[in-house]
């Protein structure tokens, strides 16, 4: 059985532009209403961030109208936009961002630097990573070595989240939409990790996607062979295969969900043209998050929790529920459908770390 992920209070930030820098992570670590802190998704060598292309914006989910100048996500960006009226809540977000410009080694260095001033209650730090399957293996080796280093031991429990769900990478669709691709990633994971490992998945919108995901977790899709056709032999029965380790046995948790891709904001306020164009640069197509995503995120968490509980080989998987939560009621809804913990990104970008203390106040600390 893989190691258990511990998050208490069961509230955390998710990988986002507002967990990029050391200052971001330090502020999150100081917040007593958080049980874990997630770094922004990093690559071994960092992501080639282009501030003219990789941006984000907040918008009114009812009108679909942008309410802020797009942020360029430099490492010193503020965690809220002062030109958005404080009474205009809830707000949604759309981004054309990629991954962090900081390499994985920089995040390990940042975590190590907190050794001298750890918070009063240790928080789990979830290191979000991505890359090819071989790069994920190398990243895991680097994190494992860091975790066990006697020279610079981490003052925090560590976990690893493998982001297989970003919709904004050209010519690289989210691997978690492809069962064969997902199987390749699962095959690359260690079988005996003492660090909890999870994967972050995109929003699924129909039953077949959930079927494919569960099949990959159970090993029904081999990375070296095509999915079985209707004319092939039937898969082994559950009673026969239950004693055989499945890929899901390498995982401790699932983060559901990431942003919804292929979304667009139109800059209707622009006076430069009679034909309004996209608010964000280039085509403006990116990932949407915040309240419009909330019902879909709830549905994903609910369906996954029921699917996992129905199979003893998957029942150990915890779910971090993410999508559109910005207050205590949203937190309670997410928990009610099976989320072990609740993650927040857009509301963090809008309100800063105060969103977490506000949620704790909303629920009277009744976690």
From TrEMBL:
GO terms for cellular component: cytoplasm. The keyword Zinc does not apply. CDD domains: DHOD_1A_like. Residues 89-212, 248-365 form the Dihydroorotate dehydrogenase catalytic domain. It is an enzyme of class 1 (oxidoreductase). One of its GO terms (biological process) is 'de novo' pyrimidine nucleobase biosynthetic process. It is found in: Cytoplasm. Residues 72-83 have a biased composition (Low complexity). One of its GO terms (molecular function) is dihydroorotate dehydrogenase (fumarate) activity. Keywords: Cytoplasm, Flavoprotein, FMN, Oxidoreductase, Pyrimidine biosynthesis. Residues 68-87, 217-245 are annotated as: Disordered. The keyword 4Fe-4S does not apply. Its EC number is 1.3.98.1. Residues 224-237 have a biased composition (Pro residues). Homodimer. Belongs to the dihydroorotate dehydrogenase family. Type 1 subfamily. Catalyzes the conversion of dihydroorotate to orotate with fumarate as the electron acceptor. This is Dihydroorotate dehydrogenase (fumarate). It comes from Hypocrea jecorina (strain QM6a).
